[in-house]
Structures are given as C-alpha cells and as structure tokens.
Amino acid sequence: QPCSDLHGKHFAITAGPTRESLDPVRYLTNHSSGKMGFALAAAAQRAGAEVTLIAGPVSLPTPPGVKRIDVVDARQMQEAAERAADLCDVFIAAAAVADFRPERIAQEKIKKTDDSNRDTLALVKNPDIVAAIAARCERRPFTVGFAAETEKVLEHAKGKLARKNLDMIIANDVSEADSGFNSERNRVTVIDQTGGTELPSSLKTELAEQLIQMIATQAFAQ
Ligand code: PMT
C-alpha cells in the first residue's frame, strides 16, 4: 500500500523509445520497451496522482486511470511533454529519446546504388526534452531524469544531473544482465544533490512504487 497520498498532484511521465524516420519504410530507434515508464505511471496513479503518460511506440496496455498520449518521434514527444509540463507538479523522463534523427526524411524509399558498397547517413541532434523542461524559469515541475549508461554509471549520471539541471536522476547500468532495456527487472541508483541511494534489483513494477515514494518525498517536502 502506498504510504504517500498523491491526490491533487499531477505527474507527467515519458516512456518507451522514439522512432525517427529515414524514409517511408525505415527508421532509427532503440530497445526501450516502455515497461519502466508504464510501471511508474501505474504506481503514481495508484498513489492517487493524476497521471499523463507520453508514450513512444510500444506494445503495452494503458495502466488503468492514466491519460495516455501516443507519439512517434522525439519532436512529437517534446511537444506533448511541454504541454503536459505546463500542468504538472512532477515530470519524469523514463523515455529513451533518440539523440539524433536523420537530417532529411526521404519522400520515397531510399534506393541502394550499384556503384558503391558504402553510404553515409546525415544526422541532426534532437531537442533534449527533459533539459528544456528543467531549464524553465516559470512553471518548472520537479524534474526527474533517467540515465542509461554502459560504463562509469555514477560518474556519467552525476554529470547529467548537473548539466540538465535535474532535481533527481535514476541511473541504470544497461549493460547488466536482466536489467535496463526490455527486462522485467531493473537495478538503479537514485541520485540527487545530497548523494546516491543504491536500490537492489527488483521487478520494475515494485521498483516503480519505491521510486514514486522517493520522488514524492523530495518533491513535496516542506
Ligand atoms: O523502457 P524499458 O525497456 O523498460 O527500459 C527502461 C529504460 C532503460 C529505457 C529506462 O530505465 C531509462 O534508463 N530511460 C532513459 C534512457 C535514456 O535515453 O537515457 P539517456 O542517458 O540517454 O538520457 C538521459 C535523460 O535525458 C533521460 O531521462 C532521457 O529521457 C532524457 N532525454 C534524452 C535525450 C533527449 N533528446 N531528450 C531527453 O529528454
């Protein structure tokens, strides 16, 4: 049973991957399943919060009582996130947003050329969704990011906490077996300005309950 009552509080949560089109049949994406973000949305809703879940392309059912907004690419996710952030008290970025997108989306299927065995793809940087929300002067929600790292997990996560001006970052080592992308379980360290708390490997559904309580304690502390 959740110990903190989040009635009257509004959470906005991003989840899943983004999908960046190259042409009508191809895209760039990653292995995020949306499980972590959806579990957080369900846990916040069960604790009494109003929840807006901004979901990239995933095949998961919408948690009961949660308002879901489906998006495909990073720019659509940013638009939906900015709108939701205007109204929310807590913003949690669990989505694995593509850092880059193809510079151009070809109108027709890109053809391979017969005279070359090489090709190059021009990419441009996507907007940083969570950093833009954390940089707000007005209507800035308590802003929580995730850090998906494969090495120097704590060092890189602390760098992102500072660079993106976040209130909290949840670091996961995505190279670990049975953790991170598309797993039922995750093992994370919660980091804020005061230090880090390592949590044991747990089911994402259980971890989400614990994370929502930790976030609520920080966000709504008097
Ligand atoms: O979806 P699952 O299969 O359950 O897997 C869960 C997860 C591993 C995807 C999740 O726990 C996680 O770590 N999500 C963040 C993944 C990520 O892209 O991390 P990052 O270190 O690249 O980004 C740092 C933070 O900035 C994240 O909060 C991310 O949402 C945010 N970001 C990144 C780039 C961008 N353009 N906009 C962003 O908002």
TrEMBL record:
Binds 1 FMN per subunit. GO terms for cellular component: phosphopantothenoylcysteine decarboxylase complex. One of its GO terms (molecular function) is phosphopantothenate--cysteine ligase activity. Residues 11-222 are annotated as: Phosphopantothenate--cysteine ligase. The keyword Metal-binding applies. It comes from the Bacteria. CTP binds at D99, K109, P127, D128, I129, V130, F146, K160, K164. Pathway: Cofactor biosynthesis; coenzyme A biosynthesis; CoA from (R)-pantothenate: step 2/5; Cofactor biosynthesis; coenzyme A biosynthesis; CoA from (R)-pantothenate: step 3/5. Its cofactor is FMN; Mg(2+). Residues 6-217 form the DNA/pantothenate metabolism flavoprotein C-terminal domain. Coiled coil: none annotated. It catalyses: (R)-4'-phosphopantothenate + L-cysteine + CTP = N-[(R)-4-phosphopantothenoyl]-L-cysteine + CMP + diphosphate + H(+); N-[(R)-4-phosphopantothenoyl]-L-cysteine + H(+) = (R)-4'-phosphopantetheine + CO2. Keywords: Decarboxylase, Flavoprotein, FMN, Ligase, Lyase, Magnesium, Metal-binding, Multifunctional enzyme. GO terms for biological process: coenzyme A biosynthetic process; pantothenate catabolic process. Its EC number is 4.1.1.36, 6.3.2.5. In the C-terminal section; belongs to the PPC synthetase family. In the N-terminal section; belongs to the HFCD (homo-oligomeric flavin containing Cys decarboxylase) superfamily. Catalyzes two steps in the biosynthesis of coenzyme A. In the first step cysteine is conjugated to 4'-phosphopantothenate to form 4-phosphopantothenoylcysteine, in the latter compound is decarboxylated to form 4'-phosphopantotheine. Catalyzes two sequential steps in the biosynthesis of coenzyme A. In the first step cysteine is conjugated to 4'-phosphopantothenate to form 4-phosphopantothenoylcysteine. In the second step the latter compound is decarboxylated to form 4'-phosphopantotheine. This is Coenzyme A biosynthesis bifunctional protein CoaBC. It comes from Microbulbifer aggregans. The lineage of its organism: Bacteria, Pseudomonadati, Pseudomonadota, Gammaproteobacteria, Cellvibrionales. The gene is coaBC.
